[in-house]
DNA sequence: TCGAATAGACATGCTGCTTGACTATATGGT
DNA sequence: ACCATATAGTCAAGCAGCATGTCTATTCGA
């Protein structure tokens, strides 16, 4: 049924909206008022493994020049540091500072709080289903829409 | 479990990314190459009911000036027309043209195609569940994240 | 060892949005 | 009927976040 599909599509967009807004709000409330959602996507990647600017650019879907500018901004604000890449003299690895980790933690807590709100909307015995369903239908890939 | 919630959160973001990208691609393929996703969010609202610029601004989460500029652009490209608001001499109602409706239709078809891809990832007997679950957890509100 | 590829910075420009100021119309109180 | 205030929309200017183009330093493959 076409209407079902459209309804599911808009539902996903509304959930994403609620989530992004919830994370932004939660992060602001913990005192990180100089970060945007794209920084969160960068942090999520950097918290997995140290990454070069070019790798980060590909992950975010913007140019390396734009990424470089953003990285400079985040370093000035104390969220990141550069450390030389031992295997490549041209590159430097971007590493989260304590502040960067703290901000990432705030974002994760806010995200969890938003998901908890979603859980409240369905019966207790379907909440495990929700997680399994979302895990099953989503695949690895970019986290950030190219707006 | 906190990890479950984070996993669900990222799943939703990945789905939204896949959906936005799928819609953009599908719309482009049908020849609408001068529209961005924010225009789609505007079309979705206008296809429900004629709307003024200020109402549309609130819905999109941007200023009325920004909206006004966008509306002018869309009128020049033939997606919208202005018609006077019979109940308010200051306002005009924005109405989708045939081209605007055609573009909206293309977006809906592309969205449905993406959701169909999601369905392929889970067993046939769980697909109805997917729609019901998404409908149940999402609530009315803005469609567009404030990025 | 030398040519091509890659990481990253610097300069420049543009687009999409903001803030601020303004006009025209509407609305509510007196 | 009148005026104060609010609202719809436009015009002008500015800015942030990207893109494009060019450059250097380093790496890698033949």
Task: Describe the structure in your own words.
2 copies of one chain form a homodimer. Chain A is mostly helical. The first copy, chain A, is 65% helix and 7% strand. A two-stranded antiparallel ribbon of chain A has the order 1-2. In chain A, a hairpin with a 7-residue loop joins strand 1 (80-84) and strand 2 (92-96). In chain A, helix 3 packs across helix 4. The longest helix of chain A has 28 residues, at 2-29. The first copy, chain A, is globular. At the A-B interface, helix 1, helix 2, helix 5 and helix 6 of A face helix 1, helix 2, helix 5 and helix 6 of B.
Average predicted confidence as pLDDT of chain A: 94
> Taking strands numbered 1, 2, ... along the chain, how are they ordered across the largest sheet of chain A?
1-2
Helix/strand class of chain A: mainly alpha
Oligomer: homodimer
Query: How many beta-strand elements of chain A?
Result: 2
Measured as a percent range, the helix fraction of chain A is: 55-70%
Global outline of chain A: globular
| Count, helices of chain A | 6
Q: How much of the polypeptide of chain A forms β-strand, as a percent range?
A: 5-15%
| Main beta-sheet strand count, sense and barrel state of chain A | 2 strands, antiparallel
Q: Give the N-to-C terminal Cα separation of chain A.
A: 28 Å
H/E series of chain A: HHHHEEHH
CA radius of gyration of chain A: 18 Å
Largest interface: A-B, 53 and 53 residues
Low-confidence residue ranges of chain A: none
């Amino acid at each position: 049924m076409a209407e079902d599909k459209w309804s599911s599509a808009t539902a996903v967009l509304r959930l994403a909206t609620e989530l992004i807004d919830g994370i932004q709000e939660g992060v602001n409330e913990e005192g990180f008022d100089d970060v945007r959602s794209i920084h969160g996507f960068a942090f999520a990647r950097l918290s997995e493994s140290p990454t070069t600017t070019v790798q980060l650019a590909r992950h975010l879907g913007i140019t390396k020049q734009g990424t470089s500018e953003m990285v400079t901004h985040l370093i000035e604000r104390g969220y990141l540091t550069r450390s030389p890449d031992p295997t490549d003299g041209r590159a430097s690895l971007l590493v989260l500072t304590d502040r960067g980790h703290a901000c990432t933690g705030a974002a994760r807590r806010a995200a969890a709080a938003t998901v908890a709100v979603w859980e409240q909307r369905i019966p207790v015995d379907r909440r495990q289903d929700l997680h399994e369903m979302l895990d099953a239908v989503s695949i690895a890939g970019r986290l950030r829409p190219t707006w």
